[in-house]
Amino acid sequence: MYIAQQIAANAVRQVLSGRNLTLSLPDAQQRFGNATPQQRGAGADLSYGTLRFYGELEIYLNQLLEKPLSDGHVHALLLVALFQLLHDKADDFTVVNQAVKAASYAKPAWAKGLVNGVLRNFLRQKDALATQVAKHEVATYSYPQWWINTLKKQYPTHWQAMLLVGNTHPPMTLRVNQRKISTQDYVQLLDRQGIASQQIGPCAVMLEQPMPVDKVPGFADGVVSVQDYGAQLAPYLLDLAPHMRVLDACCAPGGKTGHLLESADIDLTAIDNDASRLERVSSNLARLSAHATLKVGNAANTDNWYDGQLFDRILADVPCSASGIVRRHVDIKWLRREADIVSFTQQQSAILLNLWQILAKGGKLLYVTCSVFEQENQRQMDAFLSQHADAKQLPIQLETNLGQHIQCLNGQLIPSALHDGLFYALLQKV
């Protein structure tokens, strides 16, 4: 266990220093080259868990320390151990002993004694500490205070549920490729293999238990893809028809790109400004036996990729705060700053303005974010509409069979047990 604790502590320390977990975790795992696959997996689980509840853990630790720690690794190791003692099923005695062993490998000579003392004090004073910690909203919800305040103001009846669901483990949802198998037949296929699942949408199947993607029946052959149900709405809302000229802007990693091609025989151009991420799109399309014209390009500037022909449909899945998918990316809560939202809205405005110029009259543009902040969503739409007389916002209509499991509030998907918190706005050029 102590190796898993060390891996997690290293990853958590890097995140708290400003590096995202996608980079930090592989780096931390590499530093312990002799770790077994099980130890690397346990280290990943501890990393995610610690960052998921970092707000709570940090306040507990502040109660236990006389002064802030100068050593970032020891600080992170204590956070990992506190996560285990508060939220993990491991035995308390084992957690403490293994954390002390992990601390013995740290450079400060005092680390071992301090870790032992802090964790044993926590166990002795757990109830009294919990009473004090409960007074802090940051501890109760494990989000920065500015984030909590924002959701309180924007979602007076939903904010608590939104915060709490963001601290749960995300479901594993599949998108069934209707060109290869019906959703009902795929559910029956899973059932025959002893894999419990539930159909929650026309193409969406949620597994009762997550599993490695390479073990998912039909994944390698393009029969299914892994995609949150909330992210599966784009083709339905765009009202695609055969031979339409369609643009998927900001397309990487290609989940929606593949779904568009599964839904209709369209002429699809997909762009992304990151060539390496575009390679992942290409790989995903190859798995699906699907084809699109892929181009490296900036959605906010058409100079280097646009061929001059207007598009009938445009999917603008724009860069955003990712505040609606924090249960999948737990580090976002602690890496984002309130000031970042302004930067994202400026980037989104530039993309919208540019893409609108290349949309045909009568065409539709679907604006999508994975954010729950109004500044990036409906306020962005309101600002755009006030400056474009030729733009009309259409209602987001979810048919009964499509929307029965989706909690949608004026285009904003409220994050729930079944889907993430995405925003959709459909614009038509009149």
Plain-language structure description:
The chain is an alpha/beta fold and 430 residues long. It has three domains: 2-137, NusB-like (N-utilizing Substance Protein B Homolog, Chain A, Orthogonal Bundle), CATH 1.10.940; 172-226, 2-Layer Sandwich (Alpha-Beta Plaits); 230-429, Rossmann fold (3-Layer(aba) Sandwich), CATH 3.40.50.150. The chain has helices at 2-16, 21-31, 37-52, 54-64, 72-87, 92-103, 111-133, 137-141, 145-154, 159-165, 183-192, 234-238, 255-263, 275-288, 332-335, 340-356, 378-387, 400-403; strands at residues 172-176, 197-199, 204-207, 224-226, 245-249, 267-272, 293-296, 311-317, 359-369, 391-394, 408-409, 412-413, 423-429. The strands form three sheets. It has a seven-stranded mixed beta sheet, with helices on both faces. Strand 2 and strand 3 form a beta hairpin.
What is the typical, i.e. mean, pLDDT? 95
Tally the helices. Answer: 18
Number of distinct beta strands: 13
Instruction: Please list the strands of the largest sheet in the order they lie side by side.
Output: 7-6-5-8-9-13-10
Helix content: 40-55%
> What fraction of residues sit in β-strands?
5-15%
Structural class label: alpha/beta
> What is the H level of CATH, i.e. the homologous superfamily of the largest domain?
Vaccinia Virus protein VP39
CATH architectural arrangement of the largest domain: 3-Layer(aba) Sandwich
